[in-house]
Amino acid sequence: MESDDRVIKKRNPRSYITAAFNISIICLAGVGIVRMIRHMDTGAELVSDGFENFKYYTVLSNVICCAVAVLWLIFFLLRRKFPVLPKLMTASAVGLTFVTIAAFLQPLYPDLNLYEGSNKFFHLIVPLIAIVEFIFMEVDGKIPFRYTFLAVIPAVLYGIGYVINILINGVGEWPDSNDWYGFLNWGYPVGFGIFVGIVIMNWLIACVLRGLNYLMNKMIYSIKSALYK
User: pTM for the complete prediction?
Assistant: First the structure.
């Protein structure tokens, strides 16, 4: 007899809606990845050559988000509860991409279309779906606050790998620079400051998502309680 309380004995409509969100993430991220690899984005801004794009945090965060969505669906089919931490990690990771593009890079470079080709999926569509899905996702109680710190692990690991690559291979010269984001254009201290700022922004996004998820679950619970009184 299965006694693990992580087994879902009865599903509610929200779980099927969440499943639809995850299927959308898988399909749309997949479209973006295929377009990118098959060089279907001729003329798209800030797109390297095929597999070279996997060096970008934007692409990697979307790939990981897609992989976690696949895992969620596997758990769903097996009627198992999926841990919330991977979802918080990926939603805040792609959320970081969305905020960086929408609030900083696109206004800074208005002549560039940062939502063209695969970037439309990676910078906009997949992040928005992942954010909405996380906010809507059913969670028992409030997500532990320490999870917001764990959510920045992908950004920290990427930053460490980014720096190690530069230390081993050198900065290089554009367009073959290993500092493809240009963090070191103003020297290592400024580059380190930018990295710290990105990690802090990632953490703040995780905090906001945690709070919105709690409010959403509280609101839905209140509505259900009122309806079934």
Answer: 0.89
Give the C-alpha separation, 26 to 42, whole Å: 23
CA separation (Å) from 130 to 20, 125, 136, 202? 11, 9, 10, 15
Q: What is the DSSP letter of 144?
A: P
Q: Is 29 exposed, middle or buried (0-12, 13-18, 19+ CB in 10 A)?
A: buried
- Give the containing element (helix H, strand E) for 139: none
Q: Would you give the DSSP letter of residue 9? A: S
How far from 104 is each of 58, 185, 188, 226, CA to CA, in Å?
15, 17, 21, 43
- Condensed to tens digits (0 to 9), the pLDDT of residues 87-134 reads 999 999 999 999 988 888 788 778 778 888 888 999 999 999 999 999
pLDDT value of position 3: 44
